[in-house]
Amino acid sequence: ELRLVESGGDWVQPGGSLRLSCAASGFDFTDYHMTWLRQTPGKGPEWVSTIDSRGEKTVYADAVKGRFTISRDNAKNTVYLEMKNLKPEDTAVYSCRVRIATRDYWGQGTQVTVSS
Asked: Mean pLDDT, consecutive 10-residue segments, the chain of 116 residues?
């Protein structure tokens, strides 16, 4: 059974930092790109960042570029999202996603709240 389990979400003040983790199982993690997305109530998912299967190439949404860093540890089947200089507009549920063939698989997500 394929599973994606996110963790690391929390409440932080503006300017703070968090590191999110997504533990994957049930598929060959090393074969697939991994993506982080976020979602707020009433809005559709917003793409945040993607990393290739080897961890050599990364891309970011303009809203997070320079503040967020995506990485992966293929030995641990885990993808990370390091978030710095967090802003209130970063408040969302963050989820990781893998696309296998034509199907997307998501985790349950982890809540990040940025407020003073």
From this structure: 97 98 98 98 94 97 98 98 98 98 96 97
Q: Which residue has the tokens 């793409």?
A: 47
Alpha-carbon span 26 to 47, nearest angstrom: 24
Four-point Cα dihedral 15, 94, 56, 2, nearest 10: 160
Contact of 103 with 29, CB cutoff 8 Å:
no
Question: pLDDT tens, 36-53?
Answer: 999 998 899 999 999 999
